[in-house]
Amino acid sequence: MQIEFLGGAGEVGRSAILINDSLLLDYGIKTENPPQYPIGDIDPDAVVVSHGHLDHAGAVPALLSGSARPPVHWTPPTRALALRLAEDTLKLHGQTPQCPFTETDVRRLTQVSETHGYEESFEAAGHEVTFFNAGHIPGSAHVLVDDGETRLLYTGDFHTGGQRLVPETTARPEADMVITESTYSDVEHSDRAQLEAGFVESVRTTIWQGGTVVVPVFAIGRAQELLLICEANDIDCYLDGMATEITRTLKQYPDYVRDPDALRRATSNARFVTEKDGQRARLTEKNTVILTTAGMLGGGPVVSYIPRIRSNPTNKIALTGYQVEGTPGRELVETGSAEFDGRVMPVSAQVEQYDFSAHADRDGLREFLSEYRETPILVNHGDACEQFADRLAAAGYEASAPDLGERMQVGD
């Protein structure tokens, strides 16, 4: 089996791996300014997408911009999420060099789409492919690829710990080679129950003191997780931004969430923001919780809320995930100020950060990979891939970290 790394090697973003010059695993975007896309000029016979996040699915429509029409395989939720992301990308960057596809390409994508459930094997570009629940977001999958000689397990993004939204991964299919993500290979997540308890206590304290809590969330996965936490702890909240539509979408796929009834209750508990700026201005004067995109403060309705609440030290901004370097969220954490609408604004409101990650941490990665101690492992999708591969090698694994653009032969 030949493997070529077109993105995601030694980095987080633009995941893309070409198998035997014919089967493409993921085709994502690295959300920098300007965005970065996978390298190489490729023409795959088929595409398999692990899950519906921008860094794995965001550039898939671009594969249909020419005359080729490769079938695109994914789970039903991944299809729905990827199409929604494509529409959002067109809205933000359409008709500019930052967007590599058009509305026509997105329509073509719906025509070549083929959906599959977990553990339902299918054929793609002459390979047998099987999806397994990866425990990351609804529809996320480990991808097992068998070319008749070598069985490759591509983990995609995965989580071994429990989330309210989706159950953790339990699948450990036999494989001759593993390509693993390593996003949090040097981090130990907080105990989830303690993390939730701390978040809930902090939010309740701010509301009791008369403040407003703005909770920046990622639209896919994180927003719904926080909705579930709020409902379970009797916290009233509002939901704003792209997360509202994504939440409605995910409710349509009950087989891919842990507790469909809980998600329905959580959605009913939240009030969706519909009047936009007028309603947003009124909400910032209320003692309430506002879940809003974007999670790193780089756009979306959150940029309407924070300037309005920033001057009151009773108010709170509760960040719910990692803040990438160069984003307003990272700037806020490090300096106490951030740029909104071209102006750098000091923030007197309290700023807290909570690690509601949907990725396996250091221990979770080790637990998963312990089932593959005798299997060669390739480490990608991380900022410290080589270091993690070295630690695995020191522990007795056959592990390495491929370079971007590297092409290798494995198996017979």
Short description:
Helix content is 29%, strand content 21%. The protein has helices spanning 54-57, 76-93, 103-112, 192-208, 222-232, 242-250, 260-269, 277-283, 302-309, 328-335, 362-369, 385-394, and strands at residues 2-7, 16-19, 23-25, 46-48, 72-74, 113-115, 122-124, 127-133, 141-146, 151-154, 177-180, 213-216, 237-240, 270-272, 289-292, 316-319, 337-340, 343-346, 350-353, 377-379, 399-400, 407-409.
Q: What's the CATH class label of the largest domain?
A: Alpha Beta
How many H/I helices? 12
Question: By CATH's scheme, which homologous superfamily of the largest domain applies?
Answer: Ribonuclease Z/Hydroxyacylglutathione hydrolase-like
CA-CA gap between termini: 7 Å
CATH architecture of the largest domain: 4-Layer Sandwich
What is the total tally of β strands? 22
Count up the domains: 2
> Whole-number radius of gyration?
21 Å
- The share of residues in extended strands comes to 15-25%
Share of residues in helices: 25-40%
* Shape call: globular
Largest sheet: 7 strands, mixed
The CATH topology of the largest domain is Metallo-beta-lactamase, Chain A
Mean pLDDT: 96
Structural class: alpha/beta
Widest sheet: strand ordering: 6-5-4-3-2-1-22
User: Which regions contain 5 or more consecutive residues with pLDDT less than 50?
Assistant: none
